[in-house]
């Protein structure tokens, strides 16, 4: 091989490696993993994959801890204060007051416990649990009672909730791909 061909191949390989690095860096920017230790600790403590917790956070708040929705949901996992007060009476968050939901560690603790509760309540069905996280437990139970087939997400009549489940699942796949490859 002459020198020009070797240099060309080396440049192409370097460009390809740079492109892959840039692509992965861009994806990690779109799918951040802030508060990693808290997410992993709470996911482990509650039997929820930390990458699912990260996906919920990314969809709910884009990892902005100070977000308050028009409906009153607060913080990273967009927990409603009423739900948070109920959860806080079951987990070690005492004394609890609504402003604590702006604290990432408290919000992730409460949100992850609640998500775990929903997964258990809906017999391990992640789609049902995510729908309940967004649309409410009572509403999802009613929808399930009214439908013949609850596989997939077509059974979810509320567009916002159906899209939430889709986004979280898409984010979850990306988090698994970006942050768990080569582990365990």
Write the layout of secondary structure elements.
Blueprint: H1 3-30, H2 36-46, H3 50-61, H4 81-88, H5 104-121, H6 126-135, H7 137-146, H8 159-179
Question: What does this protein look like?
Answer:
Helix 6 packs across helix 7. The protein is 64% helix and 0% strand. The relative contact order is 0.12. The protein folds into 2 domains: 30 residues; 146 residues, Lysozyme. The protein has 8 helices and no strands.
The first-level CATH class of the largest domain is given as: Mainly Alpha
Overall CATH architecture of the largest domain: Orthogonal Bundle
Uncertain residue ranges: none
Beta-strand fraction estimate: under 5%
The count of helical stretches stands at: 8
Strand segment tally: 0
Overall geometric form: globular
Order of helices and strands: HHHHHHHH
Characterize this entry briefly.
With 184 residues, this protein is mainly alpha-helical.
Keywords summarizing the entry:
184 residues, Lysozyme, 8 helices, 64% helix, globular
């Amino acid at each position: 091989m002459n020198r020009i061909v070797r240099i060309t191949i080396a440049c192409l390989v370097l460009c390809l490696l740079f492109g892959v690095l840039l692509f992965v860096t861009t994806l990690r920017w779109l799918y951040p993993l802030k508060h990693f230790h808290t997410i992993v600790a709470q996911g482990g403590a509650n039997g929820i994959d930390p990458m699912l917790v990260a996906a919920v956070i990314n969809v709910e708040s884009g990892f902005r801890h100070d977000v308050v929705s028009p409906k009153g949901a607060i913080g990273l996992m967009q927990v409603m204060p009423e739900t948070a007060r109920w959860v806080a009476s079951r987990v070690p968050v005492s004394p609890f007051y609504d402003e604590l939901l702006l604290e990432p560690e408290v919000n992730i603790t409460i949100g992850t416990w609640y998500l775990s509760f929903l997964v258990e309540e809906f017999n391990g069905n992640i789609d049902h649990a995510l729908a309940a996280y967004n649309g409410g437990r009572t509403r999802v139970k009613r929808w399930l009672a009214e439908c013949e087939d609850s596989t997939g997400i077509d059974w979810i009549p509320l567009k916002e909730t159906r899209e939430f489940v889709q986004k979280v699942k898409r984010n979850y796949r990306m988090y698994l791909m970006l942050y768990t490859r080569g582990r365990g």
